[in-house]
Amino acid sequence: MSKIKVSLISILILILVIPSFSQQKVKDLKFHHLQNYCWMRLAKIVPEVTDRVILPIGTVEAHGAVAIGADNIIPNNLAEMVWEKCHALIAPPINHGFTGRSISQFPGSITVREEIFEEYIYDVLKDLVRTGFRNILIINGHGGNLQPATRAMTRLHTETAAHFMIVEWWKIAFNIVNEVYGAKAQQPGHGDLEEAALVMGYDPDLVDKEMYEKLGKDNVGRARVDPGIATMPILATTAYPEKGLGYLDFNVNKAKEYTRKKADYIADMFLEAVKRWEMMEGWKK
Ligand SMILES: [Zn+2]
Prior knowledge:
Rossmann fold; alpha/beta
């Protein structure tokens, strides 16, 4: 074969291969977990196949009758439920976060100091950006992480112009608890109906029904104190949004439906954000 013919064939192969590679979806890849790839394979995937990644973050802390890992179990499971729709890989999670002192004395609770957590997540995000990710979804399972994580992502956005979204399931789509449980649409408490639902949506065994019934729902938890009152430690590791509301429901089907709806909402919000980020970047060109 002549040299011209060989190079023509090579060009033809490139034309055929390049678009199909860039059109690949994350769901067609061998793995959707970042850490399962060797670095050379990953270099072919990011950013060509996808520049989107999900980072689940949480902590370990007491949650009444719900597993102490609830704040990790929930974002990890939500990530598993949304990656395909979001066309994103999942990064290894950050499972130790900034647990408040009012709850950190209970057995199993672990806390990382706030300033350490901020620098830690900053470093993790920085290397995700260096790897080629531009659109990063942080699914946060624990309220104490919000401020340090937001500071970290704001710093990185300023430095790199990468796009970040952080989402906390308990502050979005209050209507879902009403749709599924007929409960009042409001921000939930802690270790109560909705947090237990998201854990049961993953594994019903991770909510200890025996302990919940043994202690009694009002002894496991109590209604939140007025915003003008602070106690150290907190009065119960389960906080109901208000008196008489937020008790656990052990119906697994409802828990799965609630979890599915929260996951879909998160995926829709991220897809909308990416669309808008890309549209705004398009205006610059
Ligand atoms: Zn929690």
